[in-house]
Every structure is written in structure tokens, then in C-alpha cells.
Amino acid sequence: MDAIQFAGAMAREVVAQAVVSRGPGGDPAPSGTGARAARTAPPTRRQPRRRGIDSMEVGSMPLTGEYEPSTEKVVRDQVELYESSGGTEGTTLGSLIGPDDPERAGLPVVILTTIGAKSGRIRKTPLMRVEHDGSYAVVASKGGAPQHPVWYHNVVADPRVELQDGPVRQDMLAREVTGEEKTRWWARAVEAYPDYAEYQKNTDREIPVFVLEPAPQEH
């Protein structure tokens, strides 16, 4: 998710989905055990999710694997706050960039969980919230950088993801959209976070958009 200059850079880097390490291809290098989630997550299975009115669940396609926190402290801390509070704290862009940009500080953020394309470990990334009729979009902008964010490669390798939007955690399936469908979702994304339009102007690559839809229930 350096005063104004640092906040702006972090917003572009973190919120535009470059929040994990810049390693090529799949996923970043291990970051150690600094975060509480890293210390408590079991080695072969994700921690049991909190149940109750403050943390609802939809779907039944749980991701498994060892959680590897981001190497970016601001990202690692927001993910921990977001999840440990049951989705009641750390849910806006202000948790990443601070209060110095009030116009953007209140914009909502979701947590995307993916499986590392190379390591197979669980990765978590705060992204801007783009929702329509129960489906979500995630935009692989990386602040207009010339290369895709790391999480993009994770989703391409395994479209099974989890999304937490406030207190609601859902197992989702991701698919990259093109053509008219992408045009519609791009408009929604820019409405939610206008900086996306500027990011596209700043890069020669076409910024990918994935639509996330609830995974089918397993019986």
C-alpha cells in the first residue's frame, strides 16, 4: 500500500501492485520471519480463518502453503493489520500512504492472496478495490512500470486466489479479460482509482486486468 514524495511513490508502487519484491518471473525472495503472520502460519497449511460476524467466508477452495510475507515493511504491516483485525482496520489507501493525501487516503483496499509461481508459497498483496455485482477486478499496473508486477505471474500460473474485502473473505477464480469486457472493467477501475489512467499513459505495455469471480462451492 518520505512525506509527500515518499507517499506518492509508495502509492504508485504498492497500490499499483508492485508491492512485492522485484524478482523476475514468479515471486519474491524470502523475507525472513519478521511479521507475526510469518511466525504463526503453519508450514504446510494456512491458518484457520476467524469465523463470526466480523469475518465472513464465501466459497470453499482454500489455498494451502507456507505464508511468505512481503519484503516491503509497509505492505507486510498493512496485511497483518487488515487480517488480524478481521478486516476492520488497515482497509484504506491511507494505511499505505499516510494522511498527507486526503483525496486518496480514504480509498478502499482489498487483500489479494496468491500462490507463488516459483516457490509455491502463499503471497498477499494490498490492491485497490474495484467491484461490480459481486465480481472484482485487479489491475496489474505496477504504477506504470515497464514490467508486470510479481503477483501477475502468480495469477497466470494459478488462477485460484483469495480476496478479502473488509470482513469478507472469498475464494475466487481469476481470468484475464480482453476486448469489450476489459474496456468495461477498465472504466470501472479508473473510476475507483483515477491514477490508473495515468499509469497506462506512462508505459508502453498494455496493463492487464483480471476479473475475480467466486469459486464454485465444493460438496
From TrEMBL:
Ranges of biased composition (kind: Low complexity): 28-44
Reaction catalysis annotation: oxidized coenzyme F420-(gamma-L-Glu)(n) + a quinol + H(+) = reduced coenzyme F420-(gamma-L-Glu)(n) + a quinone
Gene Ontology MF annotations: coenzyme F420 binding; oxidoreductase activity
SUPFAM superfamilies for the chain: FMN-binding split barrel
Region (Disordered): 21-72
GO cellular component terms, semicolon-separated: plasma membrane
Sequence similarity: Belongs to the F420H(2)-dependent quinone reductase family.
Name of the protein in its database record: Nitroreductase
Species annotation: Streptomyces fulvorobeus
